[in-house]
Amino acid sequence: MSMLATFWRNNKSLFVFLFLMVLFRSAVADWNRVPSGSMLPTIREGDCILVDKMAYDLRVPLTHIRIAHLGDPRRGDIVTIDSAAAHELLVKRIVALPGDSVALSDNVLYVNGVRAAYRPLAAAPMRDAPSTPGIYLVEQLGDSRHVVRWSPAAPSPRSSFGPVIVPAGEYFMLGDNRDNSADSRYFGFFPRSEVTGRTRRVAYSLDPEHFYLPRLGRFGESLDAVAAADTFSPR
């Protein structure tokens, strides 16, 4: 028996496992490490997020070929995008759907002429990260409620934008870190075909500011838990 055949016989189970794992991560569920802060404070640098690849479509593994349509993204969903415009995988929040009118005015969001409501958080969500100061507010528009971060000391040159109409089959997406996010304000609308999954939870988290020690409190945490649990100040 050849050395190759012996190697295959001794490691066949491992190769089958790895092959099935690749198919699973491609078509069913995946986990992605987030290196940037464009979704602060919802997703923090060092977070590894769980991605549901079957949230919207069933696809042929390792391709973007859709076998079955399972649903459509909704306003407020955090999604992964295999962006041709950005030439990389992005994680952003959907703020406007096909046919919507969307605008920003000094970071205040308007969809179809309706102004989002803003309330300051009763407690800062990132007390353990003094290097990322900012203003943290809960942004609510309809049923979509989540935390956003503004940086008055370094505002984005596109903190005011639009209004624009979202074309059919496309979505307008923003990062929750509004003054430090490359999103639809820079790359344009994202096609439905580039949306590869939805994320709602952290798998695990390592803190790059503290020698990559685990942030145990974030393991398995819901991404919008802060907004859901926050007690608004009376202002």
Please give a structural write-up.
With 235 residues, this protein is mainly β. The chain has three helices and 17 strands. The protein has helices at 3-27, 184-187, 225-229, and strands at 29-33, 47-52, 57-59, 66-69, 78-83, 88-96, 101-105, 108-111, 114-115, 117-120, 135-141, 144-150, 161-165, 170-174, 190-191, 195-207, 213-214. The strands form four sheets. Strands 1, 2, 5, 6, 14, 15, 16 and 17 form an eight-stranded antiparallel beta sheet that branches. The chain has a four-stranded antiparallel beta sheet with strand order 9-8-7-13, with no helix packed on it. A hairpin with a 5-residue loop joins β16 and β17. The longest helix has 25 residues, at 3-27.
User: How many DSSP H or I helices?
Assistant: 3
Low-confidence stretches: 231-235
**Average pLDDT figure:** 85
How is the main sheet built? 8 strands, antiparallel
Helix content estimate: 10-25%
Number of strands: 17
Task: Quickly list its features.
235 residues, mainly beta, eight-stranded antiparallel β-sheet, four-stranded antiparallel β-sheet, 3 helices, 17 strands, globular, disordered C terminus
Outline of this structure?
14% of the residues lie in helices and 38% in strands. It is mainly beta and 235 residues long.
Secondary structure: elements and pairs:
Elements: H1 3-27, E1 29-33, E2 47-52, E3 57-59, E4 66-69, E5 78-83, E6 88-96, E7 101-105, E8 108-111, E9 114-115, E10 117-120, E11 135-141, E12 144-150, E13 161-165, E14 170-174, H2 184-187, E15 190-191, E16 195-207, E17 213-214, H3 225-229
Antiparallel strand pairs: 1-2, 2-16, 3-4, 5-6, 5-16, 6-14, 7-8, 7-13, 8-9, 10-11, 11-12, 14-15, 16-17
